[in-house]
Amino acid sequence: LWSSKIRKLKIGVTLSLEKDLPPIFGDAIELRQVINNLVRNALDTSEKGSALSISASKKISSFHKDRQVVVIKVRDAGPGIHPEDKKKIFDPFFTTKKDGTGLGLSISYQIIKRHGGLISCESKLGEGTEFIIELPFSPEE
């Protein structure tokens, strides 16, 4: 889906998937939309020759009452998000893009929330941005 833009910008992509990841229960189309939104945002802010990494692993989550979760991270080496903007990135219609609608991250947030998960963002100006998604991989008992 993104290969032509990745080639054009000569982005170095790293994909790191932990072995034997459990399946996530949910709507595959919606979850794919979230990953696509995050990758698109990363590529939109990436400069030629920069890096993008996507990883997935499992861990015990304190947020999810010590349940096991799959953690998906999408990290870019773009300009980062200004601290004032970071507070609003999941708000509907908030955008810093010239042609943006401000709906991608808001919709992504709602999708992850509906799946019982958490999405957060870590960013430093000049160093890039990392979105972290935690999704429970087993239904609550």
Descriptive overview:
There is one protein chain. Helix content is 28%, strand content 30%. It is globular, with a radius of gyration of 15 Å. The model has no long low-confidence stretch (mean pLDDT 91). It has helices at residues 3-9, 28-45, 83-86, 104-114; strands at residues 12-17, 51-61, 67-76, 118-124, 128-136. Strands 1-2-3-5-4 form a 5-stranded mixed beta sheet. β2 (51-61) and β3 form a beta hairpin. With 141 residues, it is α+β, with helices and mostly antiparallel strands.
Instruction: Please give the alpha-carbon distance between the first and last residues.
Output: 37 Å
Q: Tell me roughly what share of residues is in helical segments.
A: 25-40%
Please, what is the oligomeric state?
single chain
Mean pLDDT: 91
CATH topology: Heat Shock Protein 90
Report the major sheet.
5 strands, mixed
Radius of gyration: 15 Å
Number of domains: 1
**How would you sum up the global shape?**
globular
CATH uppermost class: Alpha Beta
Widest sheet, order of strands? 1-2-3-5-4
Low confidence ranges: none
Q: From the 3D coordinates, which CATH architecture would you assign?
A: 2-Layer Sandwich
Strand content: 25-35%
The topology string of helices and strands comes to: HEHEEHHEE
Structural class: alpha+beta
Q: Supply the CATH superfamily name.
A: Histidine kinase-like ATPase, C-terminal domain
**Number of helical elements:** 4
Number of strands: 5
